[in-house]
Design a protein that fits this description.
Elements (H helix, E strand, L loop, with lengths): L1 E5 L2 H10 L11 H4 L6 E6 L8 E2 L30 H9 L12 E5 L7 E5 L1 H11 L6 E6 L18
Parallel strand pairs: 3-5, 4-6
Antiparallel strand pairs: 1-2, 2-6, 4-5
Helix pairs in contact: 3-4
Length: 165
């Protein structure tokens, strides 16, 4: 990932409101594990190689090969009716949304560290699935990257990444 700027919580909150984010930084009791004031918030651009460390939230496990929650492992049939909120993913697929070109659809990621750690999508899971299935990669997607060393203690992180302290 190419880091392009440092951001702040107010900028992230404006983005969350503009995109009607369901999962916001600190939401779903995330703040119980990671104090909001201790997050470092960055702006970045995903690179092709980041696909190896990009994860969906834990509830997406049934829709990935081997239940890895990795975006690259999403099964194409997982977007059939009755799967992964098929209407949401379908709306992005039908519109052939290209997240690298769309304005104001930046994904929001949490990570214990941005250089080599896992990148866990907290907002943009559905649109990222659609983008990946349509475009075959993630290169050029803009993101907010929220870094906190304890984020993998949060229960919504995929089980294979969770650490318990």
């Amino acid at each position: 990932m190419k880091i392009v700027a440092i951001a702040d919580l107010q900028t992230l909150r404006r983005h969350e409101r503009a995109t009607a984010s369901n999962t916001t930084l600190g939401g779903y009791h995330m703040d119980k594990y990671c104090a909001l004031g201790n997050f470092r918030i960055l702006r970045g651009i995903l690179e092709a190689t980041d696909i190896e460390r990009l994860y969906l939230l834990g509830q997406f496990a049934p829709y990935t090969n081997g239940r890895t929650c990795k975006l690259r492992d999403v099964r194409p049939e997982a977007v059939a009716p009755g799967q992964i909120s098929s209407e949401r993913v379908g709306s992005f697929l039908q519109g052939k949304v290209n997240l690298a070109l769309e304005k104001n659809l930046d994904v929001v990621i949490v990570s214990p560290e941005e250089v080599a750690g896992p990148l866990i999508l907290i907002d943009g899971n559905h649109r990222s699935v659609a983008h990946f299935l349509s475009h075959g990669g993630i290169d050029g997607i803009p993101a907010f990257v929220c870094v906190h060393r304890s984020i993998c203690r949060w229960p919504y992180v995929p089980e294979n990444l969770q650490t318990r302290i």
